[in-house]
Amino acid sequence: MEASAVRQRNMEASSADTVRIVSRRMVRPSHGAMPVQPSEDIHLTPWDLCCIGMEYIQRGVLLSKPTAGGEMSCLVDTLASSLARALGRYYHLAGRLAVEEHGDRTIIVPLRCTGEGAELVHAAAPGVAVADIVGSVYTPSPVVWGFFPLNGLRGADAAIVSLPVLWAQVTELADDIFIGMSMNHSVGDGTSFSELFNAWSAINRGDKRMGEMVSTPARVHRRWFVDTSPVPIPFPFSKLQDVVQRFELPPVREGFFSFSAASVKKLKARANDEMAAGAAISSLQALLAHLWRAVSRARRLPPVQETLCAVTVGCRGRMRGIPADYLGNAIEIRVAGCTVGEILDNGLGWTAWQLNSVVGSFDEAGVQELKKLMEEANDGTLTPMLAAAAPRSSSRCRSSARCTVAPAAAPRPGEAAPAAARQLGGPARQLPLQVVGPARRLPLQLLGPGRRLPLQLGGPPR
């Protein structure tokens, strides 16, 4: 289905009865004292191109509604003005993905810094209250999807029909407002998304600390490639439409669970108490281990069945050449695996240690191994480089088809924690379960003190 048809179908399905579009506008960068950046291309890395078939990143926050009825239009104007200033710094997000077709049955997909802008949507859902969304375990998904304008749209669709890579929507509810943002995953990851969203928030609040930042363009052209990589990287397809595989998922009910700080603290203490001294389990690892065990138990899986848990590992600060302010995609997915019987019988601490080892194995040696793989895989086209950059299994006993950094078996309670070991070869495995950790909390206050929904609102479940 063409991207325009997908967008129209989702807008009709989610908005016809609940969410009504009030207005749309294209917000172009406001450079202020910054020099206007030339229209040039940013070439996408293998990590970026891996995400071109994914749906847009979609996140948002719930904030207090203006008390005066006439303030909504003024609020939207203010948000548009501050978004324009944010785009002045992150000017690449006002550009468009382009498609260059070559005669050798390959295509190039650059991000073209055209300055055409991001789309800002003002919507209203007067019949929806906050309680309707958070009042039960299950989320009213069609209503929530209406808070975002791009459900079902994939990164490649924006290049095929020339759509913005960044969208925002302000939805007026019965008792509050919801501000959501959608970003094409091929131009950045969650860290890049959060940086832009927080900058928009700070500018809108008049945060003086943003003064120096918004006067300097972000270093958006600094993309990480291995030394032997072609730049740009060609897709071995004659049409971009051939790159994306579309499929329908069976209907599911979405639910979100929140954990208090006290509960997480207890889980962390319990996990560390079950392990030997020196096995430092983090709060996140303890929580993910608890979820992993709970899901396995709820599914009533046989003890001998293998179960996998994937965690995202950020490359910023772990890989040389990828600084903290890197604005492209810079994440690796590591996978821990063991049998259902092992994680249920050995306890929370042992299960958390599986995740601890997976994250710990992504050290500089592992990074160099990944870089070497990508260099050796390069044959001038994208396919083998994507295979090298793709998520790999990092369990204690197996690895992916090419290479992995695999931790050694976790210690039993009371044993010393061994150093991580590396293992090459072995068959690739499917990932029936992916737990990527709790959503990043965006320290946003666009309008002053606001409330956050205890959930990450996004598109249809994948």
CATH H-level superfamily title of the largest domain = Chloramphenicol acetyltransferase-like domain
Distance between the termini: 18 Å
- CATH T-level topology of the largest domain: Chloramphenicol Acetyltransferase
Helical stretch tally:
14
For the biggest β-sheet, the strand order reads 1-8-9-10-3
The CATH class of the largest domain turns out to be Alpha Beta
Low-confidence stretches: 1-16, 380-462
Q: Order of SSEs, N→C?
A: HEEHEHEEEEEHHHEEHHHHEEHHHHEEE
Q: How much helicity do the residues have?
A: 25-40%
User: So what's the overall shape?
Assistant: globular
Computed structural class: alpha+beta
Number of strands: 15
Q: Write the CATH architecture name of the largest domain.
A: 2-Layer Sandwich
Radius of gyration: 23 Å
Kindly estimate the percentage of residues that lie in beta strands according to DSSP: 15-25%
What number of structural domains do the residues give? 2
Pfam family, one: Transferase
GO cellular component, one term: cytoplasm
Organism: Triticum aestivum (Wheat)
Keywords: Transferase
Structure description:
This protein is an alpha+beta fold. It folds into two domains: 3-242, Chloramphenicol Acetyltransferase (2-Layer Sandwich); 261-424, 2-Layer Sandwich (Chloramphenicol Acetyltransferase). Helices cover 31% and strands 16% of the residues. The chain contains 14 helices and 15 strands. The chain has helices at residues 3-15, 46-50, 71-89, 130-134, 141-145, 155-160, 190-205, 210-213, 261-274, 283-298, 340-345, 347-360, 364-377, 383-389, and strands at 20-27, 41-43, 57-64, 96-97, 100-101, 107-108, 110-112, 118-125, 166-173, 176-183, 306-314, 331-339, 392-393, 403-404, 423-424. A five-stranded mixed β-sheet has the order 1-8-9-10-3. Strands 2-7-4 form a three-stranded antiparallel β-sheet. α3 (71-89) packs across α7 (190-205) and α9 (261-274) packs across α12. The protein is globular, with a radius of gyration of 23 Å. Keywords: Transferase.
